[in-house]
Known about the structure:
Elements: H1 4-16, H2 20-24, H3 30-44, H4 50-73
Helix pairs in contact: 1-4, 3-4
Amino acid sequence: MGNIYSAYDQLAGILAKLGPEEVMKLRATDEMQVRMELLLRKSRENILSIVEKDELDHFIVLERLVRLAKIRAYQPEA
């Protein structure tokens, strides 16, 4: 397997096959958004626990995957 970004791109491609309209509707829930904002604030203030840092890292990965999926949803197949 290639680097981790290759894996993200592959998963984004799978998500994009849901159809552009469905992919564009993907959004974090209000609860998830509030939690991510809290973790980001704590990160800026340097008061994240190790567990919270891990959680924030996962949120960031998920956000990147959704962004890639949205971009790829409107790109023609290569």
